[in-house]
Amino acid sequence: MARVNVRCWQETYRGLMSDAVLDDPGFLAARERFWTAALTDERYRENRAAVAERDGELIGIAMSGPPLDASPAWTRQLYLLYLYAADHGTGAGRAMCGTVGSPARAARTVMPHASMKTGSPTLTRLGSTVEP
Question: Model-level pTM?
Answer without folding.
Answer: 0.77
